[in-house]
Amino acid sequence: TAGDQQSDFDATIAADGRIEPRDWMPDRYRATLIRQIAQHAHSEIIGMQPEGNWLTRAPSLERKSILLAKVQDEAGHGLYLYAAAETLGMSRDEMLDLLHSGGQKYSSIFNYPTLTWADNGAIGWLVDGAAIVNQVPLCRASYGPYARAMIRICKEESFHQRQGFSILLALARGTDEQKAMAQDAVNRWWWPSLMMFGPPDGESPNSADSMAWGIKRFSNDELRQRFVDMTVPQAEILGITLPDPELRWDEESGHYAFGALDWSEFKRVLRGDGPNNAERVRRRKAAHDDGAWVREAATAYAAKQAARMEQ
Ligand code: 3HC
């Protein structure tokens, strides 16, 4: 009965077990997972654009091949995540249509421009650093296909974070101009990186359910604090200043205290009014349209193979 199904589901969640695609699940659990996993997948593929912008201008062959590998990894992450979301019953075509029409979101962070080479360092260090803090707990998310996809993604994100740190370290040890370029990039990416963790706990409508269902393991503010605590000592090693005059070690709480985020900026970017929203969506749609012939050819080939198998 429906009651038995609900109590089996509740028992699995209470025992910290995994829900698998063929298991019964509440409609709202399914809907919130599709929402979060699709948004995550979209972020991975939109996230290829800001750094893709620098592939032809990387300062050495080594940096270029590393950046190329990194951008390709993001495409792979998108694919694992779309595949995980498809197990919940929404097709990839439908998710991409929703991305293109604005019906599903992608992360706010990818609506900011990459103005100099140092931005690739700041993205790796801060954006991928924040992604790891947010995503490591998702390896224990209650939905099996999502949790399993996150394991490999997190391993690759660690490599991305280190390559970003390495770019900034080289610049920070360079000429005055290079140091200034690194500092400027960090000044621009710091606050948007903190916004990646989502709205403050008191204004996070999805958190209560997602925590109860074992999708989220820590709140938005807890993870944001963890990221700040982890990053400040790394900034000291780089000799780069984080652009927050209120940032200080707080003996009493055992954490770094930091200044208030500009949530009106966050809301603006979510509404589509960030510096690069229109450009990101336009390029994504153009890439999709340009790839139509590949999808058509693959479908025709698959149909031919299937027909041959039937003979
Ligand atoms: N950008 C865009 N939208 C955001 C956001 C952000 N930074 N933070 C929150 N939101 C949206 C939520 O999606 C939600 O809107 P919706 O109900 O229409 O979906 C609304 O703001 C309210 O936020 P909540 O806190 O209630 O939402 P969640 O419980 O879903 O928490 C989250 C937000 C912490 C981002 C969570 O969804 C999550 O952990 N997602 C998985 C991680 C992810 O998507 N990361 C993407 C960026 S990192 C990345 O792509 C890797 C890089 O290397 C490319």
TrEMBL record:
<dbReference type="GO" id="GO:0005829">
    <property type="term" value="C:cytosol"/>
</dbReference>
<dbReference type="GO" id="GO:0010124">
    <property type="term" value="P:phenylacetate catabolic process"/>
</dbReference>
<dbReference type="InterPro" id="IPR012347">
    <property type="entry name" value="Ferritin-like"/>
</dbReference>
<dbReference type="InterPro" id="IPR009078">
    <property type="entry name" value="Ferritin-like_SF"/>
</dbReference>
<protein>
    <submittedName>
        <fullName>Ring-1,2-phenylacetyl-CoA epoxidase subunit PaaA</fullName>
    </submittedName>
</protein>
<dbReference type="GO" id="GO:0097266">
    <property type="term" value="F:phenylacetyl-CoA 1,2-epoxidase activity"/>
</dbReference>
<dbReference type="InterPro" id="IPR011881">
    <property type="entry name" value="PaaA"/>
</dbReference>
<dbReference type="InterPro" id="IPR007814">
    <property type="entry name" value="PaaA_PaaC"/>
</dbReference>
<dbReference type="Pfam" id="PF05138">
    <property type="entry name" value="PaaA_PaaC"/>
</dbReference>
<dbReference type="InterPro" id="IPR052703">
    <property type="entry name" value="Aromatic_CoA_ox/epox"/>
</dbReference>
